[in-house]
Fold this protein.
Amino acid sequence: MKSIRWLGHSTFIVTTDSGKNILIDPFLEGNPVTPDAWKSPGELDIILVTHGHDDHAADTIPLAKKTGARVISIVELSALLQQDGLPENQAVEMNKGGTVDLGDVKVTMTSANHSSSWKGKYAGDPAGYILKMEGLCIYHAGDTNIMADFELYGRIYRPDVAILPIGDHYTMGHEEAAHAAVMVGARYAVPMHYGTMPVLTGSPETFRDLVEKHTSGKTRVIIPEAGENFADQIS
Ligand SMILES: [Zn+2]
């Protein structure tokens, strides 16, 4: 992996060794945390959408049209995006447990314990994603409550990096997220979905302290600055 950047909220951009740009949860225009330099993310190959809520999917269609990127999402959300103008040949619909092979990255869809809609319409189940690359596995949990599946994902996929929501109110807070990090057992945990709006009160520092205490330092917490490439913090 060449780079991984947090762009605020649950939005991340990953560049693989071959230079493929993968954007997870496109929420940039209206995202108060996204740095100006990343409001328009440039060339994209793949967009992964965890669920249809605006704070995860708002910029999906304009970015797909602008960049020609393929858009991976669950079947029901994919149908709604296509109705609203996502070109059919760019839509990759899948479902939980399935894996899509994109060359130097394989993407598996996981469960998430949350809800999902697109412009007020039911958009299927929410999801998370496992990204398997050469020598590195990243788990982006999407929006979720704590769930027993974390333990299974840790056992089956052995992620190196677990990206977990900690904000509270709409997802688990830092307490539950710290337990989730223990269950996944990745070498690194990265907090997301906090601080974007006042109700998202989860603290990344408290999350870090709890995770490092519960795992005796086996899981290191990385708290990236928005826009910062933190690939070099992952060994
Ligand atoms: Zn959300």
About this structure: The radius of gyration is 16 Å. Residues 3-230 form a domain with the Metallo-beta-lactamase; Chain A fold (CATH 3.60.15.10).
